[in-house]
Design goal:
Distance between the termini: 48 Å
Oligomer: single chain
Radius of gyration: 22 Å
Order of helices and strands: EHEEEHEHEEHEHEHEHEHEEEHHHH
CATH architecture of the largest domain: 3-Layer(aba) Sandwich
Shape: globular
CATH class of the largest domain: Alpha Beta
Strand order of the largest sheet: 1-2-3-4-5-7-6
Length: about 350
C-alpha cells in the first residue's frame, strides 16, 4: 500500500476532542489510554488516525498502528519521533514495556530486553549496558555477612514508621541495604527522600542507602494500557519488579532477606507483599513482614503526615516523624513542596 497525504501531528492533550480521538483509536487496537501520558504524536491518513505513540517521563507507551496499515514502517516512524522528542527534553535513557509478541519489533529499533514475564510483559531499554552499569555501581557497596538484608522504600516523607522498620531489620542483619524508589511521582522529590532517609539512619552503622534509579519500579509509573484486568495489573507489576530485584540486584549484593512493613490499608501494597512472599523464596530470599509502628494505637503513615502538612498542623506531624525529617519540614527548603502539595489532589 502506498500512502499519500500522510499527516504527522502532535496531539494537544488538553484538547478533550483530540484526546478522545486517541482514546478511541487505542480502544480499537485493544489498548487503554494510560493515565499519566504527557506527550502524544499521531499519523493521520485522510484525517483518520492510523498510528500513534506517547511517552511519560522516560517510558514510551501506547504505541499502536491500525492493522490495515501494518508493514509500512509506521511503528518505526512513531518510535523515532518519540525518541527524538525525549532527547530534546534531555532524556536519553529510555524504556518500553510491551507485550512479548512485540519484542522483535522493538529489538530491531535498538531496544534491549531487561526482563520478561512470558505471555504478559517484556521490559526493554535503549542502552545495551544500562542495567549492567547500575549493578556495577551498587556492587561497589557490597559488604560481607551471613544475613544480608534489604528494604525497598519510597518514604514520602520519611516517618518514624520507616525508621522503626529499618532499626528492626538492621538489628537482626549483618548488613541492611535500603533502595529508594527513584521515580519522580511522589510529593517529595527523590533526592529529598534519599537525604531524609540518609539523615534519619545515620545512627545505624550497618545500613547502606542506594538510589533505586530506573530499576526499582513503582506502581505509580508501571503502564497498564495493554493489561485488561485491574488485579492482573497489580500482579504483573509486582512480579516484573520482583524479578528484576531477584535476578539482578539481590545477587550483586548477596541479599538473602527482604523486610517489608505490614500493610493494613492499601490493597495494592498488600497484593505486592503477597507476590513478594510467593516469588522471592524461589530465589533463596526470605521475606520478613514487620508489624506497623503505631502512635497512640494508630499505625504511622506518610499519607497521614502529608494530610497534616496540607493543614500545616506541625504539632501533629512532630509525633509521627524523626527530628531530622521534622527539621526539614519546617525549613524554607520544604516550603515550595508544601505549597505544591496544597494545590494537588493526588494521594502521592
Amino acid at each position: 500500500m502506498q500512502l499519500y497525504n500522510l499527516e504527522e501531528r502532535i496531539i494537544q492533550l488538553n484538547n478533550p476532542i483530540e484526546r478522545k480521538r486517541i482514546k478511541n483509536f487505542l480502544k480499537e487496537q485493544g489498548l487503554d489510554y494510560d493515565h499519566d501520558i504527557e506527550y502524544t504524536i499521531a499519523f493521520l491518513h485522510e484525517n483518520k488516525i492510523i498510528a500513534t505513540g506517547s511517552f511519560s517521563g522516560k517510558v514510551l507507551k501506547c504505541i499502536a498502528v491500525d492493522s490495515k496499515y501494518k508493514g509500512l514502517g509506521l511503528s518505526n516512524k512513531v518510535v523515532s519521533l518519540l525518541v527524538s522528542e525525549e532527547y530534546q527534553r534531555g532524556r536519553t535513557h529510555l524504556f518500553i514495556y510491551t507485550k512479548p509478541s512485540n519484542y522483535k519489533m522493538f529489538s530491531d529499533m535498538g531496544f534491549y530486553k531487561i526482563i520478561e514475564l512470558p505471555e504478559k510483559v517484556v521490559l526493554m531499554e535503549n542502552d545495551p549496558n544500562g542495567i549492567k552499569k547500575y549493578i556495577d555501581e551498587i556492587s561497589n557497596l557490597k559488604r560481607k555477612g551471613k544475613i544480608i538484608s534489604s528494604i525497598v522504600m519510597n518514604c514520602n516523607p520519611f516517618t518514624l514508621g520507616h525508621q522503626y522498620l529499618i532499626e528492626k531489620a538492621a538489628s537482626i542483619s549483618d548488613v541492611l541495604h535500603i533502595f529508594v524508589v527513584w521515580e519522580d511521582k511522589s510529593t517529595f522529590p527523590p533526592e529529598v527522600r534519599y537525604k531524609l532517609i540518609k539523615n534519619g539512619t545515620k545512627h545505624i552503622s550497618n545500613v547502606i542507602v542506594h538510589k533505586g534509579k530506573d530499576y526499582i519500579i513503582s506502581n505509580a509509573t508501571f503502564p497498564s494500557y495493554f493489561i485488561k484486568e485491574g488485579k492482573e495489573i497489580v500482579k504483573t507489576h509486582a512480579f516484573l519488579d520482583l524479578k528484576i530485584f531477584s535476578e539482578y540486584i539481590a545477587p550483586s549484593l548477596n541479599i538473602n532477606r527482604r523486610f517489608v512493613g505490614e500493610e493494613p490499608y492499601c490493597p495494592v501494597t498488600k497484593a505486592y507483599n503477597e507476590a513478594m512472599k510467593k516469588l522471592l523464596p524461589e530465589y533463596g530470599i526470605e521475606v520478613v513482614e514487620i508489624p506497623r509502628f503505631t502512635v497512640k494505637g494508630t499505625p504511622v503513615s506518610a499519607s497521614k503526615v502529608r494530610e497534616f502538612l496540607k493543614k500545616e498542623e506541625f504539632s501533629n506531624i512532630q509525633e509521627l516523624v524523626p527530628k531530622t525529617t521534622y527539621d526539614y519540614l519546617i525549613s524554607n527548603d520544604a516550603k515550595p513542596i508544601i505549597k505544591k502539595m496544597k494545590n494537588s489532589a493526588g494521594r502521592h
